[in-house]
Amino acid sequence: MDPSFMEHTQALIELDDTLTLRRFAGQADLPEFYRVIEESLDHLRPWMPWAAEHSLAAQGEWLAGRAEQWDSGREFSYAITLDGEIVGACGLFRREDTPENAREIGYWLHPAATGRGVATRAARALTEQAFQLPGVDYVEIIHDKANQASGAVPARLGYTEHHRRPATEPLAPNESGEDRVWRLTRAQAQALASR
Asked: What are phi and psi of 125, to 5 degrees?
């Protein structure tokens, strides 16, 4: 991984006085992060396959791996905080089969934080972050076609539906098995910014 990625990635992104994306603090975040997921399980289980495996040990292991993923430039995971409290998570990452010049964005929120533009603002910030990375030509947001709330975010940000494909990961209970792949190119992002 290009070491210059570290120079271009912010560990703290303050979106306003109340909304912040911050790099996870490893095990120090575990109690609060675990509680937020516990409170969100009914909201997450229909769409997030990992929610079925939720446990204190699983979340501890996930948090323990964030520093290595960040340092390698493979995945930049953030706690989404409102008024200093964790209300969800988002990330900018590259999967094994993702081309070098592409990144993907993912996000989820506690149900109390939905409907307030939080996911849209977080995804916008990560989109901007992605295009600061050397060699990134496009960013994708991928979700199951049945998850209309997730699809509203890329549509608001000017992404276009690039294609649909069979799901590549295990299915959660409400998923249809068909992913919508939204894409925003660097040129599209520049055109949107100049409006």
From this structure: -65, -40
